[in-house]
Amino acid sequence: TVPGPPPAGGATFNAKRFTVTLDEAAAFGLTAARRLTSRGWLRLDLAVGRMDAAALANDSQFVTPVLYDRWNVTQLAASWEQRLTDTRLQPLLLAGASLTGIGATADASDQTVAGLRLGAGLLYRGGPRWSFGLDVADHVQQFVQDGLPAEMNYPPDTRYREFGPQHLVTITGRLLAHF
Description:
The protein has one helix spanning about 150, and strands at about 1-5, 15, 15-20, 25-35, 40-60, 65-85, 90-105, 110-125, 130-140, 165-175. By secondary structure, the chain is mainly beta.
């Protein structure tokens, strides 16, 4: 049995097994884009948000969700945006690299990792000076929690495993002003 409390100072728990997952969160950001071909754009996105890591603590009888940790996340992504048509409604594809920085309650979670960004979306060109876009992207990266078991003083017989890579999916709505 693994005793709590979790690093975020949430409710204490005892569990034979627990799984930590990341909850949905809202992020705020800025995007800068530069047209390099007739339909191709180089895009730079910066997003900042806060994300809860929830532990699903299983004591063989019940599964209890517990706040495990809280992550402050900063993400920088450089991507190629390829618009597929020149019509008013433009489907688009995204591919690029992302860098995700985490500041967590548990010191062992603090890290910055590189990843791959893949996505698709739609852009509605409303006029010569504005557009509205919506895209969905998957940021694939591997967060590592190597120091966490020692930091948390888990019992010596505790088996610790990490699964990955992790997928941070973003849904982004954008209002674009053309200069």
